[in-house]
Amino acid sequence: MEKTEINADRLEWCLNSFELTLEELAVGVNISQKTLRSANEGEAALTIGQLKKLSKYFNRSMLFFINPAPVEEEKILSAQFRTINNRRPVHDRQLRALIERVEKQREVYLGLREDLELPYRANWYPEHLNFQDRNKKLGADKIREWLRIPEERDFNKLRQLVEAREILVIVSNGYNGDWQIKKEEPVRGFSLYYESFPVIVIKKQRDGAQAFTLLHELIHLLLHKESVLDYEEDYESETRREKEANLLAGYILLPDRLLERINIRELTSFRVNEIDKFLTPYATRWCLSVEAILVRLNQERKINYVFYNAYKEFKANLMIVPINEEDDNRIPRLYRHREPLKIFGESYVTTVLEAYHNQYISLAKASSYLDNIKIKDIHKLEQHVIQL
Fold first, then answer.
1. Beta strand residue intervals within the chain, DSSP E
2. What is the pLDDT of residues 71-129, one digit of tens each?
3. Does any domain span residue 28?
4. Distance, CA of 275 to CA of 304 (rounded, Å)
5. Other CB atoms closer than 10 Å to residue 127's CB: what's the count?
6. DSSP letters spanning 35-92
7. Which structural domain, as residue segments, surrounds residue 46?
8. Are residues 63 and 131 in the same domain?
9. pLDDT in tens, 320-334
10. What is the pTM assigned to this prediction?
11. Using CB atoms within 10 A as the burial measure, which of 16, 21, 51, 63 is most buried?
12. C-alpha–C-alpha distance, residues 336 and 329, integer Å
């Protein structure tokens, strides 16, 4: 069987980027260590099938490994990815692939909008507003007014308001696939800064947590104007950037005037196991978690840290039944046609459907842009979008 020679420097670059040894790679791609070692020494050692495995594993084309030229990261990795990777190297191959997939999805979206001649601003950033004000509550008021956030809302409403400002919002899928951030993955969200149509990506969570992540990432785009990858730990970080993002997100979602509607005397009279029941109606109405409300109350010194910490300890000690991810993925996906809406948002989905109806793309291409849903599901999705 004919063997192919690859550029060993490019394989070495991949190994370094993912912090992998040849032994670990051999297990991952099911190719013998001897064969990979020979390929890494510049010998013609790989079959076409093995080269395909290698390409798929690293999310690169086969030509990438055959190309004799040295690796130029500026051409391979976007400025947004390099910004994230320079601050906190991304070694997980699935996460790296997701970030690159998001970048390609944005390019698809912009290309379809251009085909449809949909208007957009060259620069989405609201230059007329000064979000760097030292008075963070005043800055939060400006952002809330800019987004036009109502007092009562759910996550979908908040998402629509952010998307209306020409920001693409993607929420990871709950099912295993190209758009999933696994439950055990500590990443909570990331943002990619562009002068037009920046992107916010959120790990699937409860609505209140998703809303806070959405605003946290939006603050990074508005104040810091660069791409950021946030782990769960960053939402309790004391670094200036993360603390600022957390503070402003809390002020935006829960301004003082809403806090004043909570009866503090009644709240502090409850036992720790009764707090959820009392605050859940407020949390639901404002699309927040109960803990986020308690954080704001503690910030304003309406409750003390002892009260807040007792709640945190109570929640941490609750018995959590782990979800078997394999069992979860076997649940019948009765509403598969709606999943693209949940992942990519209404603006993106309607743009793809409109491009298809205007014959800019084929039905097969529309399917590939909508998480590869089946043809019959595209028609169901169309009917669902019409009813929205």
1. 4-5, 44-46, 168-171, 187-192, 199-202, 228-231
2. 999 889 999 999 999 998 999 999 999 999 999 999 999 999 999 999 887 789 888 77
3. yes
4. 14
5. 6
6. HHHHHHTT-EEE-HHHHHHHHHHHT--HHHHH--SPP-HHHHS-HHHHHHHHHS----
7. 4-76
8. no
9. 544 444 444 444 577
10. 0.90
11. 51
12. 12
